[in-house]
Amino acid sequence: MSEYFAAAPLGNSSVLCVGGITRSEAEAARGDGVAAGGEGYFLFLADETAPRQPIRVLARFFSPLEAEQLCRLLSGRPA
């Protein structure tokens, strides 16, 4: 699987990201009700001023193609 990653600042210190997550982040997301198995691509929020703080997983992509398309959109490249 190719690794896709993109990030877009939302203001303040929040960053909207597309990418993979760690197993512990997936476990925390499951506790928040997100179906996260640890593999695949996710949409999540991170705090760029506190990189050691937990991320907030918003969604899981069904396929790498969907993740790639959003990465292109966030980076300003045509899809």
Give an account of the 3D structure.
This protein is of the alpha+beta class and 79 residues long. It has one domain. Helix content is 27%, strand content 29%. It contains 2 helices and 4 strands; from the N terminus they run ββαββα. It has helices at 23-31, 64-75; strands at 6-11, 14-19, 42-47, 56-60. A 4-stranded antiparallel beta sheet has the order 1-2-3-4, sandwiched between helices. The longest helix has 12 residues, at 64-75. The model has no long low-confidence stretch (mean pLDDT 85).
Which features characterize this protein?
79 residues, single chain, 4 strands, 29% strand, alpha+beta
SSE string, helix = H, strand = E?
EEHEEH
What would you report as the Rg, rounded to the nearest angstrom? 12 Å
Low-confidence stretches: none
What structural category do the secondary elements indicate? Answer: alpha+beta
Number of domains: 1
Mean pLDDT: 85
Give a count of the beta strands, DSSP E runs of length 2 or more: 4
User: How many helix segments?
Assistant: 2
Instruction: Output the strand order for the largest sheet.
Output: 1-2-3-4
User: First CA to last CA: what distance?
Assistant: 19 Å
What characterizes the major β-sheet?
Answer: 4 strands, antiparallel
- Strand percentage lies at 25-35%
Shape: flat
**Quaternary state of the chains:** single chain
Helix content range: 25-40%
What's a concise summary of this model?
The chain has 79 residues and is α+β, with helices and mostly antiparallel strands. Helix content is 27%, strand content 29%.
